[in-house]
């Protein structure tokens, strides 16, 4: 019998492609599709919407593969023994500690476990069976909207 609590997903925090060519991705998503993606002030290559820029999405972003690898493994090179992800998705959860323990108990390999990022978001990352990079998050500034 499973003694752990269920994973309670509140909403999709963000999603987008994991990119391998900044120029090709800019040409498609920004120039052709005209998405309102802006570079982050401290990271010109990570382009994203701000909350409300794109209806139905809290955060859509182009995440360069080398930056995703750096975030997960501390190196800009994606490990050759793992599927190279083509996309990422993050789910905001009620209790990230419980959710992380639940996934680990089910045998999933956590690439990042319950880590607080420099910008204040707490994240656990793993790969889905399809190879997508999946995050479970606790994002304080998005939760503030829920208390009103």
**Oligomeric description of these chains:** single chain
User: N- to C-terminal separation?
Assistant: 38 Å
Q: How many DSSP helices?
A: 4
Structural class given helices, strands, pairing?
A: alpha+beta
Number of strands: 8
Spans of at least 5 consecutive residues whose pLDDT stays below 50 are none
Considering DSSP H and I runs of 4 or more, what fraction of the residues is helical? 10-25%
Strand composition percent = 25-35%
Spatial order of strands in the largest sheet: 2-3-4-1-5-8-7-6
C-alpha-based Rg, rounded: 16 Å
Choose one word for the global shape.
globular
Largest beta sheet, briefly?
Answer: 8 strands, mixed
Q: Could you report the average pLDDT, rounded to the nearest whole number?
A: 90
Instruction: Give helix and strand order, one letter per element, not per position.
Output: EHEEEHEHEEEH
What key phrases describe this protein's structure?
8 strands, about 150 residues, alpha+beta, eight-stranded mixed β-sheet, globular, 4 helices, single chain
What does this structure look like?
The chain has four helices and eight strands, in the order βαβββαβαβββα. It is globular and about 45 Å long. It starts with 8 loop residues before the first strand and ends in a 5-residue tail after the last helix. The chain has 148 residues and is an alpha+beta fold. Strands 2-3-4-1-5-8-7-6 form an eight-stranded mixed β-sheet, sandwiched between helices.
């Amino acid at each position: 019998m499973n003694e752990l609590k269920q994973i309670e997903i509140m909403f999709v925090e963000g999603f987008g492609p994991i990119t391998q060519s900044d120029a090709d991705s800019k040409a498609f998503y920004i120039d052709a599709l005209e998405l309102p993606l802006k570079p982050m002030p401290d990271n010109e290559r990570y382009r994203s919407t701000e909350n409300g820029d794109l209806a139905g999405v809290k955060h859509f972003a182009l995440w360069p593969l080398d930056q995703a690898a750096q975030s997960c493994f501390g190196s800009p090179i994606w490990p050759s023994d793992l599927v190279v992800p083509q996309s990422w998705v993050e789910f905001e959860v009620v209790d990230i500690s419980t959710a992380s323990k639940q996934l680990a108990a089910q045998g999933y390999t956590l690439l990042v476990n319950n880590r607080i990022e420099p910008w204040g978001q707490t994240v656990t990352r793993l790969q889905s069976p399809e190879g997508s990079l999946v995050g479970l998050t606790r994002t304080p500034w998005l939760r503030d909207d829920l208390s009103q």
